[in-house]
Amino acid sequence: MHSNGHITVFLSLILLCIVSLMCGLLESARTAGTRWYLKIAADSAMDSVFSRYHREAWDKYRIFLLEDKSGDDLEQKWLEYIAPYMEHSGWYRVDIEGANVLHRDLITSAGGKYMKQEILDYMKYGIFDHIPDEAGAVTMLADLKEAAVVKDLSRSYGEHTKEAVRLEYVIEEINSSLEKQKYIWIEANTCLSNYDGQGFIRKAVELEIETDRIPALVKSYGNIADELYAQLQLTKSKRTEAMDQLSDPIQITLNSDTDWYDSYVRQDGERRKQVEALAGESIDIKNKIERSKDRALEVAQIIDDWESSSDDDDDGPDLSELWGSVRDIWCEIHISLLSYTNGVKDPQKEKILEKVESLVRNGLMSLVLPEGTQVSKGQLDLNSFPSLIYSEEQGEIDGLIDRILFEEYCGRFLTSFLSEEDKAVKYELEYLIGGLNSDEKNFSQAITDVLAIREGLNLVHILTDQEKRKEAEALAGVITGVTGTAPLTGLVAFFVMSIWAMGEAIMDVRRLLQGEKVAFIKSKDNWRISLQGLLDSGSSGSFEGEGSDNNGVSYTGYLKLLLFLSHSTRQYYRLMDVIQMNLRTTDTEFRMTHCVYGAEIQGKGRGQHFFFGVLEPVYPIEVRTEKAY
Questions:
Q1: Which of the listed residues 190, 244, 250, 390 has the most CB atoms within 10 Å of its CB?
Q2: In whole angstroms, what is the distance from residue 532 CA to residue 252 CA?
Q3: pLDDT value for 342
């Protein structure tokens, strides 16, 4: 009996150990299962929270936005969605006591990174026509940069040409004044030959007044020449820095054309010596005029005294000798004429070209708007826009394909001048470009930028078209009156080409606003305006253009090109401005800054032990879950 009882106790102890081990294994497995169950429940609840995306934002713009107006909606909704999982946890019993958001990624955060990702996630499923590959995008970007550089340089050199023409006008005034002085001197000398003292005095005073003009003209000449030289040096530096953005043929052509400016300045250096010498000569002339006048007055007094005191038989004074003494002084006056004459022989045509530039600067809208078209008067309230938090330092540099996809997205979902939708604010694409507070301002900025693109591309074409270059040189020769090659003719020829490119650009933009297409790269076949047509349009102040180019680019296409050239991060924020503006028409409290792109939530709770009831029946448990669109 004693032996049998010992075995029973031994087996009981062994069984207890086995049961304890099994219960421990079961509890461990159940605890691990609880954690996995809680993780699955947390992730599912998070999916449910993010399924509450803004339906109108998806319908209109195909982006996911989760509103969190109060700032604690995420925690509350997450607890609400996870509660059913906890109620039916069964074997994996756990109670969630609370939750807190570890971080939220707002759609407006990270320099527009999340907005960009939303767009790319949608656009990768799109079907596109005529979208360039990366190589094509690189070529297009190079063309646009080259056009921008050529346009900027042409504008700068155009200003220098106008300064040079101003210089020529001063030379014309100086020459005119010198010729007038010469004519007055001859008339005064004739008066002396006729013993006309009073007439001589009048002419001497007249010559003195005309001589007084010379110092002011010389000073004006010097100021213009100094300004021209200083500004030309700045433009030369800018040209040197920009050369790496130009193709070899354009570099060669541009260098050849702009070298005329250096030649003109060098030539003007020699002419300036003669001009500045006139100031000193005018002082000497004035002194001799004063001496001549004084002697003439003395002679007149001698004659008057003789007439009042002489007898009738007196032969009188020798008038030839008396007035000859005045002539001796008068003949000491030497009036120099410049060996350099002014080079503007047809100022009317030159003024017409300047008028074209002035029309673009002061009245572009009237030049390019189709007849009967009204510009929207929509106003934008910028005070609550997401772009207020944008800074230039934010954001990453996008790849070319990403930028192209963004442009395509904007072209699909935003309205512009040619859109037919009736909205309070219509020019959404233009707003992305201008960022201003009215449709009218944004439209004006957009067409100015499109004009600049077309002007640069048009000038690139002219620079490489020998026929058009010869036409421009011929017109420059007519304006300057110089046959053959001369520095001033070279300056004016480049100015003519610049204004010609501008005139063609005006017609291009006008056609775009009529809904037609304009070729990106021009050729002889699709060039619209002749030089004579340019002069006629400049005189009348109106440009007419119609007809589409085969395989051309539409107005929307050119707006997308402007976006392609702009800072992408700025565009993401302005796009958010537009989305917010439109969604607020149905929900005035909507803000993009309330919208969540992604979040991480930490839940805390208590799990319950099923075994080992003599121990603490509960234990702390936590779970983390994250989600992003």
A1: 390
A2: 28
A3: 66
Phi, psi angle pair for 66, to nearest 5°? -110, 115
Return left, alpha or beta for 627; rule: phi > 0 is left, psi -120 to 50 is alpha, else beta.
Answer: beta
Task: Give the other-Cβ count within 10 Å of 475's Cβ.
Answer: 24
CB 455 within 8 Å of CB 152: no
Q: Which is higher by pLDDT, 589 or 397? A: 589
Residue 95 pairs with which residues in a beta bridge?
Answer: 606
Instruction: Look up tokens 């050529």; give the residue.
Output: 150
- Distance CA(175)–CA(182), nearest Å, equals 10
- Please answer whether residues 559 and 512 qualify as being in contact, where contact means their C-beta atoms are separated by less than 8 angstroms: no
**DSSP secondary structure of 169-219:** HHHHHHHHHHHHHHHHHHHHHHHHHTT-HHHHHHHHHHHHHHHHHHHHHHH
Q: Which residues pair with 620 in a beta bridge?
A: 606
395: left (phi over 0), alpha (psi -120 to 50) or beta: left
What predicted TM-score, i.e. pTM, was given to this entire model?
0.82
Quick check: 575 and 395 in contact, CB under 8 A?
no
Asked whether the beta carbons of 382 and 521 are under 8 A apart, the reply is no
- Contact in structure between 472 and 462 (CB atoms under 8 Å): yes
Across 341-355, 504-518, 589-603, least confident range: 341-355
DSSP 507-566: HHHHHHHTT--B-SS--TTT----HHHHHHHHHHT------PPTT-B-HHHHHHHHHHHS
If you write DSSP's letter for every residue of 557-617 in order, what string do you get?
A: HHHHHHHHHS-HHHHHHHHHHHHHHHHTTT-TT--GGGEEEEEEEEEEEEEE-SS-TTS-S
Which structure tokens are listed for 454? 């077309």
- The pLDDT score that the predictor gives to residue 305 is 78
200-233 per-residue burial string, b: 16 or more CB within 10 A, e: under 16? bbebbeebbebbebbeebbebbeebbeebeeebe
The pLDDT tens digits for 409-422 are 999 999 999 998 88
DSSP for 299-353, please give it.
HHHHHHHHHHH--TT-----HHHHHHHHHHHHTT------SSPP--S-HHHHHHH
Sign of the Cα torsion 456, 457, 459, 460 reads: positive
Class of residue 1 by CB neighbours under 10 A (exposed 0-12, middle 13-18, buried 19+) = exposed
**CA distance linking residue 121 with residue 628, whole number of Å:** 12
Length of the chain: 629
Residue 1, pLDDT score: 46
Cβ-in-10-Å burial (0-12, 13-18, 19+) of 418 comes to middle
Instruction: Identify whether the C-beta of residue 468 lies closer than 8 Å to the C-beta of residue 458.
Output: no
Given a contact cutoff of 8 angstroms between Cβ atoms, the answer to whether 42 and 603 are in contact is: yes
What is the DSSP code string of 438-498?
BHHHHHHHHHHHHHHHHHHHHHHHHHH-HHHHHHHHHHHHHHHT--S--HHHHHHHHHHHH
Nearest to 544 by CA among 591, 511, 498: 511
Contact 155, 334 (CB under 8 A): no
Smallest CA-to-CA distance from 538 within 494, 482, 495, 489 is with 495
Q: Which two tokens stand for residue 67?
A: 């509103």
Q: What is the pLDDT of residue 130?
A: 58
Burial of 48-79, coded b for 16+ CB within 10 Å and e otherwise, reads: bbbeebbebbeeebbbbbbbbeeeebbbebbb
Q: What is the pLDDT of residue 288?
A: 93
Region for residue 112 given its phi and psi (left: phi exceeds 0; alpha: psi -120 to 50; beta: otherwise):
left
